[in-house]
Task: inverse folding
């Protein structure tokens, strides 16, 4: 049996951050000093992250988050792995913790009713219930709940426009879900704002549902935002619903096209992956921007000049960053 000495943590917290840039620097220093890797977004409305590290380092990280009164309510979805799920640590300041066109909505003021996995499971098959997937195409094409309504959108910013087609369902019970719960906070709030009467959200998302309800009736795999790309969640009645982008055979093997100018994220079976050298088409295979293919279809993102130590001095004796200081 593999030694799974690492944790992968998925979390978010909507909470006001007065000086997000200062907190970004402090947060990054803590991650560096405790060997935490991953992607974290800091914004005036809160924080959102997926990180990995040794179990003991992740325990320190969770304690660090919970020790801050602003984030004491943060709930972590914890998975076990045999290595880091990220190559680096990126802590970035952004206007929102999830891209949307719904900045006016505060989930701490109004949002859909939270359903624990067991309650979601008990309610999802009722006649007056509509299950609504609020994720993007590449996510729900890989896996989704049985009988769920999916929206044809490339990113969450399209959500307000797409739900106009659901006006006829305003008198139904709407059960929203996403990967970890963060998108549902604003999606369900927006549904309420638009006149939907009875709106719920799966607390902790698909990941928590897999952990606590064995993922029953979730068809396919769940797309995740780390090096694993896709994970199994259904231990009861698993199936595969996605097909290879190239040949059409059943496949849940998610890859990025090796052509960096395309970079489409789709299922490609192993056979087609090797034949096209990681590209999604013969045209992309011949593109001069095609990256070397190692069989995984995962490519480290360009950091675009990101400097994690911007504004932070280092200790001359150890080379490790000090507790946060700003250059004058």
Result:
């Amino acid at each position: 049996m593999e030694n799974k000495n690492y944790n992968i943590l998925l979390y978010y917290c909507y909470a006001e951050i007065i000086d997000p840039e200062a907190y970004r620097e402090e947060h990054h220093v803590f991650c560096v000093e405790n060997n935490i890797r991953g992607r974290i977004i800091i914004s005036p409305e809160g924080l959102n992250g997926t990180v990995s590290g040794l179990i003991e380092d992740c325990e320190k990280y969770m304690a660090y988050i919970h020790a801050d009164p602003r984030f004491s309510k943060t709930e972590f979805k914890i998975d076990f792995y045999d290595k880091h799920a990220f190559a680096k640590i990126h802590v970035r300041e952004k206007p929102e913790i999830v891209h949307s066109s719904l900045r006016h909505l505060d989930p701490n003021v109004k949002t859909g009713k939270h359903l624990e996995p067991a309650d979601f499971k008990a309610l999802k098959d009722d006649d007056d219930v509509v299950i609504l997937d609020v994720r993007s195409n590449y996510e729900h094409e890989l896996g989704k709940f049985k009988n769920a309504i999916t929206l044809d959108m490339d990113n969450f910013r399209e959500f307000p426009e797409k739900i106009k087609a659901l006006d006829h369902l305003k008198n139904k019970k709407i059960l929203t879900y996403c990967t970890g719960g963060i998108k549902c906070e604003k999606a369900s709030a927006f549904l309420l704002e638009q006149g939907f009467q009875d709106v719920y959200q799966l607390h902790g998302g698909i990941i928590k549902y897999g952990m606590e309800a064995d993922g029953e009736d979730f068809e396919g795999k769940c797309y995740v935002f780390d090096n694993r790309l896709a994970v199994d969640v259904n231990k009861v009645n698993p199936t595969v619903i996605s097909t290879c982008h190239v040949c059409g055979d059943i496949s849940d093997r998610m890859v990025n096209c090796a052509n960096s100018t395309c970079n489409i994220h789709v299922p490609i079976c192993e056979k087609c992956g090797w034949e096209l050298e990681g590209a999604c088409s013969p045209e992309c295979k011949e593109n001069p921007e095609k990256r070397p293919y190692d069989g995984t279809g995962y490519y480290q993102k360009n950091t675009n000049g990101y400097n994690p130590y911007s504004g932070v001095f280092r200790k001359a004796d150890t080379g490790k960053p000090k507790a946060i200081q700003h250059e004058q």
Notes: The chain has three domains: 6-93, 113-223, 243-295.
